[in-house]
Amino acid sequence: MRCDSRWTLTIFDRASFQGSRIVARQTSPESEPIFDFILALHKSSGGDWKTLQAKAGISDEDLDHFLQYAAQFLGNNGNYKSFGDSKFIPRCPESAFAALAATSPEAQKFYQATSGAIFSADNPSLLHLGYPEQGHMTTYYPDSPDITKVEIDAVSAWMEKKGLLPENTRLAKKKDGVFEIWIASAKPTIPSEGGDIGKETTFEVEDGVLAGKTITLVYGDYSKELAAVTASIRKAAENADNENQKKMHDAYAKSFEEGSLLAFKDSQRFWIRDKGPMVESNVGFIETYRDPAGIRAEWEGFAAVVNLDRTRAFGALVEAAPSLIPHLPWDKEFEKDSFLSPDFTSLEVLTFAGSGIPAGINIPNYDDIRQTEGFKNVSLGNVLSAKAPDEKIPFIAEKDLDVYKRYRDGAFEVQVGLHELTGHGCGKLLQETSPGKFNFDKENPPISPLTGKPVTTWYKPGQTWSSVFGSWSGSYEECRAELVAMYLSCEFPVLKIFGFGDGSVDINGEAGDVLYASYLSMARAGLTALEMWDPKSSKWGQAHSQARFSILKCFLEAGDDFCKLDYNGDDLKDLKISLDRSKILTAGRKAVGDYLQKLHIYKSTADVETGTKFYADMTHVDPEFWGKKVRDEVLRNKQPRKVFVQANTYVDEATGKVTLKHYDATLEGMIQSWAERDV
Hints:
The protein is an alpha+beta fold.
């Protein structure tokens, strides 16, 4: 890799992690002081945890439990699971934390700032992220315990009408009834030339449930962090390889400095146009899964290098996509006029800063860009292949274990490729793009394959997929993309692209092994997903898990004995998935196609009422069988979730030399990596 590419990689490594405190602040009020508490203990002890243990007078077990908690906290960038949105609490007694805090005045200060929230579990509702009026935890609506969902939706509707995008905002309801929209920006004041909707910052709402109320725009949320990010991005602009990269970096800098999401959208346009870079990166407020309203986004950033060998397979998949998409179960009226071939690269991730690390990404999330300008897909290869030693595999029958173990990685790579490229990349939103202008024939609307009648709903001017489907949009879209992948993985030429088979249908050959492993993996993921369902609130805590559970139900309801659950006794002991390999291409694929068609048509036509009711039914957890019996067995077989120890990079400003520092894959190594990150 060229030296300047290494320098760019280092800059985006730094910029990504400089936003880490934003993620903590977006999780819970206590997350940032917990972060500082952990790092203060590392600093005061010099990383010598045994000496600190002796000074604090705690047991070996208590120290181990503290280190486990610290590593999990840093891996999730907060004290709520990134995959599950539920609070985790240390196994050791509170007195052990207090004793550790007492060893250092600085640590004591941060520990006291947590106000006892590390261990508090007396209010079950606060153990989950969600709406304030339901008693759940959220900091997207700071210091606003009495703000209602109706008010949140009303402000969202006002923002949509004004053209103010929500991803980099938080919303606060003040005691005088004023609603403040906090905009993330390095500068604490509105830009002199105005923000995304002009120079005004105070507005009186004219209609709706907030009529007569005042909405104020407040700039400077996360200002310290975004000032550091902006400074790093400006260095990247000086080192850009081409004009697209320079314009991308300039747009990033404007967005983070001034709070402009229009500038951020421009950065994504230039990012799409930057084809085939050796260093790939993206930063910003991206995914909206953790906002209960599903529109405000969490900070994330990554820096990675391209794996050229694996990228060739994904490139072949991109070339094949225009011939694959017509196989999907809807007519061309519900598909983009032309497939916008994206970059699709396999990356070796150096840095992924956020609350968790995905296996693949398809961005930008702005549908107006995706529909007309394109998108990029990336597969995070070294995340896909990461495995814990001696990993157990419950719920797979003994007869299937060999095939599952040999082909699950290959099956997962195919699934991720199809999910990101054709899943998130396919489909047309029927829109009134501006008053009186439509992207379909309004006088002769498309015929819905579900009703056999012309469609009667579509997106109105200013509406987006996420604004219409709200908190349902994240999980619903993940489910649609997973189903596209399951449906198209039955096309054997796709399996050939990834090196399995010769492209001919052979369910009993190696390509069939991969397909079988893929369907088994999805069924197993649907089972283990129940860990993320909370029986107290009857609430799903993770979008992908909710989606995969519904796909398992789809398999089980396919008929013809395609998929069953085998178990002994009423307690479901030795629960195993029984899936008939010979029926994947018949009963299995038909069930997947029928489910997919409904989700897609409801999304395409903005039929939020029918679509969300249908998806709610598919993701409903029967409390007695699924929520009690099956979930208990899932929890009994629960496997630890991986956290990733990431390297740090350092650059000598005088010589330009870049140094990469790795850390031991241990609890202590995890904490040390964050301490030396110095963010």
